[in-house]
Design brief:
- By secondary structure, the protein is mostly beta strands.
- It is built from 1 helix and 4 strands; from the N terminus they run ββββα.
- The protein binds zinc ion.
- The site of zinc ion has 8 residues, from loops.
């Protein structure tokens, strides 16, 4: 990017909670999965000026296996199954 340092952007993941303990299909450990809010952002002089494209994922803390969610509520609902 030509204007690196002035203009920036990318994706940011913010941890917003944990599910109930669940069994991972990949590593077979049972742990609470971490729920992340991921958004694209654009920044100008290191100040984020726009965030969009919010999505939510749950991720296994052991092997990083993850799946997408339609909403953050789904993460906490799904985990109680
Ligand atoms: Zn796992």
């Amino acid at each position: 990017m030509f204007f690196i340092g002035i203009f920036g952007g990318g994706e940011k993941a913010k941890e917003i909670g944990r599910t109930e303990p669940k069994n991972c299909p990949r590593c077979h450990n049972t742990h609470p999965w971490t729920v992340y809010e991921v958004s694209k952002y654009f920044s100008f002089f290191f100040i984020p000026v726009a965030r969009w494209g919010y999505r939510y994922i749950a991720s296994c803390p052991i092997c990083r296996e993850s799946y997408g969610l339609h909403s953050k509520e789904e993460a906490f609902h799904y985990s109680r199954d």
